[in-house]
Design goal:
By secondary structure, chain A is an alpha/beta fold. Helix content of chain A is 34%, strand content 28%. By secondary structure, chain B is of the alpha/beta class. Helix content of chain B is 69%, strand content 8%. The chains are: A alpha/beta, B alpha/beta.
Chain lengths: 322, 410
């Protein structure tokens, strides 16, 4: 039944997708993706450009139909049945240039069934709340790219959706507006709105997300809480010693590598105490030793592979250059 | 809390936006002025054509009297001609009557040559002029003058000419209705081409603005199509209303100087109603094709490249319908009526020439079915072809346009 979310154990799911496949000219852009997004979560879809993020989101929203698999959005099998409860910001931003800012917000709301007159009133309010009240009566063509993007984001939210889907929402925003958008996402989640966004910038996902799906090559090698993703790889040890060589070197694991004055390696399964004992007994002369929990970036590298990580970094750098 | 939009309600959101945007745009002004150009060209061409027609096909005055009277009338005309010039109509002898032979001028006009516009009967002392009222009123004087000369009384006494007006001669009716059909077809063609072009530009602009994905995510693509098509249809009705008011004002100002278009076979009210229905069908059929084209193209240049064959096809369809109009009841006419794109044109021409109404009901049902199929197919094409992501565009640019017909992933 439309509008009634599905249950996964004790969790209520906003999105449940099983085995989604989409082929273009025989090429599987998305190849058997499973996703479960709990209600009220901030959920990140992480992957390099071309990984299949946008195609996945488009299938979830019913913009394109999957060749195989099934999905339930807010309990509905047909996304258009719950369109009124969804907000969507596509990767390619667009508004009618001749529309005024508040009209554009009202129009996007009207597409979702929100009354036009109420949308116009609410549009002005939202613009005011977000420091854009002065631009309410300006045409979209008269706004800067960043302002127009903010107007579009407000249009995505005007009808107070239960589920908000952002495709690469931080692209094109300056650092200040990226921070504002992050705060907005948190506020939405606090109010119980489910927020899904795709990104190729790991830092955003790491700061915001309760759960992530890592997409690489049209597949999802990992989907779940960020903590579990990070726990996929062992904590990293950074060691500085006075002695450059000696018996203590035998205590270092096989993946140990030296960068400058520091040794880096994964914490052995036996734990920190046997390691410390061996270093002391081997007279390493410990100057400093720190144990860091793995970041999402490291987790991504481990899960998606070096190649995907490299692609992600290249995309991220290109984004920063923009 | 909002509710789910029905397809109709969603189409209304699109239609309302498009209607407002187009109505207050410069392109609508051009749309309003658009028909002026063909009207001007048509008027100029019509003026030249009329002169050619006047000189080449001067209507003749038939004569059906006893042989002696015919000779006397012809001689009188010949005698008067050098002095009075071309105001005198040419006599065409319809029949030299035997004494006491009766002759039905009205029937002869129905069967006779289209160039004979009226027939003078009786005797030179008491001639009777039968024909279309306007024509016989025009010729009453010259016939009286010729009759007076024929009986040797001119210029002292002129015999009275009895007038026997017909509502309109059959041959004249057929020809004139053809003119009405031709005018209606041309107007329909110009309007549909103009509108289909506008709806195409509107869609391309939308794609350029990249708002199409927002629409596709929120409402069914069918609603986008219906909304766009019907918005433009509504815009066109505004345009037609403006033209109608302007035309009526012009007609009232010009009065009798305004050319009198012959009434169509089904009568003006039904003809106008059918005209609106066929215009809507023609536009929706062509508009749906142009929208499907718009879904394949991303730039104005591509639109021009793709729409050219369709425009040429529409031109050929127009020629087919024009030709079919002159061949009522033929296989060509039937083909033009059945073929969806020419059907509205052919049927409008038929309404001008033939008073039977039931074929119009059948044609409207057929055209409605075709509109539904075309819009559905167009919407499906759009949905499957249009949603492409950023990186694919770069590749597509390298691979050329036809490669872009295949969508690709993000």
């Amino acid at each position: 039944m439309a509008g009634t979310s599905t249950l996964d154990g004790d969790r209520t799911l906003a999105i449940e997708a099983r085995g989604l496949v989409k082929r273009f000219d025989g090429f599987a852009a998305v190849n058997g993706i499973d996703l479960t997004v709990p209600e009220g979560a901030i959920y990140g879809i992480l992957g390099p450009n071309g990984a299949g993020k946008t195609t996945t989101l488009r299938m979830l929203l019913g913009i394109i139909e999957p060749d195989e698999g099934s999905r339930r959005i807010l309990g509905a099998e047909r996304p258009h049945d719950v369109a009124h409860a969804i907000g969507y910001l596509p990767e390619e931003r667009g508004l009618y240039p001749a529309m005024k800012a508040y009209e554009a917000i009202a129009f996007v709301g009207a597409l979702r069934g929100f009354p036009l007159a109420e949308g116009a009133r609410r549009g002005r309010e939202l613009l005011e709340e977000h420091g854009l009240g002065y631009a309410a009566d300006r045409q979209i063509r008269q706004l800067s790219k960043g302002m127009a993007q903010q107007v579009q984001i407000l249009g995505t939210l005007v009808h107070e959706p239960r589920l908000v889907v952002f495709d690469e929402p931080f692209a094109g925003l300056d650092a200040i507006n990226q921070g504002r958008l992050e705060r907005m996402m948190r506020t939405l989640a606090e109010k119980g709105t489910t927020v899904i966004f795709s990104t190729h910038v790991i830092a955003h996902a790491e700061r915001l997300c309760d759960e992530v799906a890592i997409i690489a090559g049209g597949k999802v090698p990992f989907a779940g809480p960020v903590d579990i993703a990070r726990d996929r790889i062992r904590p990293q040890v950074r060691l500085e010693t006075r002695e450059s060589d000696g018996a203590w070197r035998k205590a270092l694991p096989a993946d140990a590598r030296k960068e400058g004055r520091f040794w880096h390696f994964s914490l052995p399964e036996s734990g920190v105490e046997p390691l410390l004992r061996a270093l002391i007994e081997g007279e390493a002369g410990i100057l400093s030793l720190s144990i860091e929990r793995a970041g999402l970036h490291d987790a991504f590298v481990a899960i998606a592979g070096e190649a995907a990580a490299r692609a992600l970094e290249e995309n991220g750098e290109a984004e920063i250059m923009k | 809390m909002t509710g789910r939009l029905s397809t109709f309600a969603a189409a209304m959101v699109i239609a309302r936006r498009d209607f407002g945007a187009i109505l207050f745009s410069r392109s609508f002004l051009f749309f309003l002025l658009g028909p002026l150009f063909p009207v001007l060209v048509g008027a100029m061409a019509g003026g030249v054509g009329q002169r050619v027609q006047e000189s080449a096909a001067q209507p003749e005055l038939g004569i059906a009297m006893q042989a002696a009277d015919v000779d006397a009338m012809q001689a009188a005309r010949a005698a008067l001609l050098p002095r009075l010039g071309s105001a005198f109509p040419e006599f065409k002898v319809v029949k030299r009557l035997e004494p006491a032979e009766k002759f039905e001028a009205a029937r002869a006009l129905e069967r006779g040559s289209a160039s004979v516009a009226a027939i003078v009967t009786g005797t030179p002392e008491a001639p009777t002029l039968t024909g279309a009222s306007q024509r016989i009123a025009q010729w009453q004087g010259p016939v009286s003058l010729i009759a007076a000369e024929a009986i040797g009384r001119g210029p002292v006494e002129y015999p009275p000419v009895a007038l026997s007006p017909l509502s309109q001669s059959t041959s004249s009716n057929r020809g004139d209705r053809l003119l009405t059909a031709q005018g209606a077809q041309t107007l329909l063609f110009l309007l549909t081409m103009l509108l289909a072009g506008m709806v195409l530009s509107n869609l391309v602009e939308e794609k350029a603005n990249k708002i199409i994905e927002i629409l596709a995510a929120a409402i069914p693509m069918d609603a986008v199509f219906f909304g766009k098509l019907f918005a433009m249809l509504a815009v066109s009705f505004v345009g037609i209303t403006v033209w109608g008011v302007a035309g009526a004002a012009l007609f009232m100002a010009a009065g009798s100087a305004f050319p009198n278009l012959p009434p169509p076979a089904v009568g003006w009210p039904i003809f106008l109603a059918l005209g609106i229905i066929y215009f809507a069908a023609a536009y929706l059929l062509l508009g749906s094709v142009f929208l499907a084209i718009g879904s394949l193209a991303t730039t104005v240049r591509e639109v021009q490249t793709l729409s050219m064959p369709v425009t040429m096809m529409q031109l050929m369809v127009f020629f087919l319908a024009s030709y079919a109009m002159t061949q009522p009841g033929s296989a060509v006419e039937l083909g033009a009526v059945v073929f969806p794109f020419s059907s509205p044109f052919a049927m409008l021409a038929r309404a001008a020439q033939n008073p039977t109404l039931w074929p119009h009901a059948a044609a409207i049902v057929w055209q409605t079915l075709c509109v539904i199929v075309f819009v559905r197919v167009g919407a499906r094409l759009f949905r499957t072809r249009v949603m492409k992501s950023g990186p694919a565009k770069v590749k597509a640019g390298k691979r050329g346009f036809f490669a872009r017909l295949r969508p690709s992933a993000a």
